[in-house]
Known about the structure:
The complex is a heterodimer.
Chain A: E1 4-7, E2 10-13, E3 19-25, E4 31-38, E5 42-51, E6 54-57, E7 64-70, E8 73-78, E9 87-94, E10 103-104, E11 108-112
Parallel strand pairs in A: 2-11
Antiparallel strand pairs in A: 1-3, 3-8, 4-5, 4-9, 5-6, 7-8, 9-10, 9-11
Chain B: E1 9-13, E2 18-23, E3 31-38, E4 45-50, E5 55-56, E6 61-64, E7 70-75, E8 84-92, E9 105-110
Parallel strand pairs in B: 1-9
Antiparallel strand pairs in B: 2-7, 3-4, 3-8, 5-6, 6-7, 8-9
Amino acid sequence: DAGITQSPRHKVTETGTPVTLRCHQTENHRYMYWYRQDPGHGLRLIHYSYGVKDTDKGEVSDGYSVSRSKTEDFLLTLESATSSQTSVYFCATRGAGGTYEQYFGPGTRLTVT
Amino acid sequence: DAKTTQPTSMDCAEGRAANLPCNHSTISGNEYVYWYRQIHSQGPQYIIHGLKNNETNEMASLIITEDRKSSTLILPHATLRDTAVYYCIVRPSQGAQKLVFGQGTRLTINP
């Protein structure tokens, strides 16, 4: 499972507060991804990273920012959480070169009240 | 733009082969077919991928039609632990590989 951990695993926060989710990997994978999963929508890509300090937007990036200052850590920040950002967030990683599969973390359940 | 069509749900008896179809009629020449599954509340799990040849690994077999417009994932001897949502995804293998998940097929294995 590529040694992926996510923290926190569960969080309840209030509308308007900043929230940061952390993804940590131990496999030295080049690519890292943040997805969100909501009922009726499947998983949707928020942001991804193709190297340290190299990030790009996915299909649902509004309201989110990311940072990757080390290979092993990819942070997702909600600058001002809204109720529409209540979701389950999954981090994934993938190695470089000819590797094909993405490995997913256990997920973070975020509730914004 | 998931570019794939899968049945919403399927049932299969334990011990039998589960055959999950996927249509991807607009697949491009450089796009691979990937299969992932998601067991309740867990992160998705990679199963298998292929370009044009049939593929087999310890989890499953992937049969791709000659025109590459459809494929079938085969779980040869389904167990109760194979109950999950199965996603068929087509993407290029190069670059960032931004996966686009559709609704998938909810496979239920019955005892």
